[in-house]
Amino acid sequence: MSNFNRIIRKMGYKSDREGLLTRYLAQKSQWDYHLGRTKEFILKTAESKKKGICVVLGSGWCLDIPLEKLAELFDNLILVDITHPSQIEQKARNFKNITLFETDITCCISELYEAYKRKSLSNFSNIPTLCNFGLPLDIDADYYVSPNVLSQLGSMVSEFFERKNVEAELRKKISAEIESAHIKMLPAGKSCLIADYSEECFDMRGNFLRKSERIFAPIPQGTHSEEWRWDFDLSGDYFIGEQVYFQVRGVAL
Length: 253
Known about the structure:
Blueprint: H1 3-10, H2 13-46, E1 53-57, H3 67-73, E2 76-81, H4 86-92, E3 98-102, H5 109-117, E4 143-147, H6 150-163, H7 168-185, E5 191-203, E6 208-213, E7 224-233, E8 242-252
Parallel strand pairs: 1-2, 1-4, 2-3, 4-5
Antiparallel strand pairs: 5-6, 5-8, 7-8
Helix pairs in contact: 6-7
């Protein structure tokens, strides 16, 4: 196992991915509306783009990706994630124009982990914005899709640091910088950003409990935007005895 794979395993990336699929299977009927709106927004935004290369950032299980239609629209479809589930690897083999690429799209996870180990996390300022999401720099796609991944980029790092008792303000600062760098890397005029940016919790009777932000970097206005609600967990399992909803915004950049 490479050093990088050991780091992402320690930080919980693979277990979080498995947990997401388990939650989807348990909440499928509630998630269908959100997943459908995400796919529709991706395809609507893709209409005006050149149909050469499409890059999907943080593709994961492809639950919210109109995979077949994007593969039909574009000459080349590149799915990018830190690792790919074996089921997606198998599915991609059915398409001649789909390439899977494994990389850290933040370009800074290893550096953050090493800064934590050196006890220099508070001085960390090495979150790059010119690394092309970890892809080879000569890849210049016609369409970039960031689908419901922005909140995860900061939260996965923050949750690991929380377990290590890193103070809340520093965790928030790092999350905001990771999110801001991701947004800056999305090329203007040929990108689609979809972000679950806030969370609302209710008790099982529907009484409002609290609202919190899921991302800390400002979402750009873009040329077109749409909003909808994601019924994330209505079973009272994610937060015991609470129903959880996410507010989602799709932005054409």
